[in-house]
Amino acid sequence: MNTGDILKLDGITPAVYDGDSDVNGVFCCDLLSVAMARAPEGSAWVTVMTNANVVAVASLAEVACVVLAEGFEYDEAALNAARGKVTLLRSNEPVYETAVKIGALL
Predict the structure, then answer these.
(1) pLDDT at residue 55 above 90?
(2) Which CATH class is domain 3-103?
(3) Average pLDDT over residues 17-22
(4) Which among 22, 47, 82, 88 would be 20 to 30 A from 32, CA to CA?
């Protein structure tokens, strides 16, 4: 599975798309320090955090993408920081439902 497959799911839209990356799991977390230490490389990180620090942690952890759930919008600093570095996706569904939907593709 890759990030392009996630985008085919109903309700998942791109905010910043940096091309297809392989996705090997789903990780849910809203605490940056935990995500930095425990997000598996290549995972789709589902969160409700919207700021540029998410992009920095996603880059350090080498996740495949960040999926912002609950209908939240990334702030402008996050969008600018992600361009050319990290794929940012959006979902209007809650974190759990978003993660289950992505996990079903694995």
Answers:
(1) yes
(2) alpha beta
(3) 94
(4) 22
6: tokens are 């996630």
Rg over alpha carbons for the chain, rounded to the nearest Å, is: 12
Q: Name the token pair of 77.
A: 């600093």
Backbone angles phi, psi at 54, to 5 degrees: -60, -40
Residues 69-92: pLDDT tens digits? Answer: 999 999 999 999 999 999 999 999
Number of helices (H), then strands (E), in the chain: 5, 5
Q: What is the DSSP string of 80-104?
A: HHHTTT--EEEESS-HHHHHHHHHT
Quote the tokens at residue 101. Answer: 């939907």
Compute the distance between CA of residue 41 and CA of residue 36 in angstroms, rounded to an integer. Answer: 10
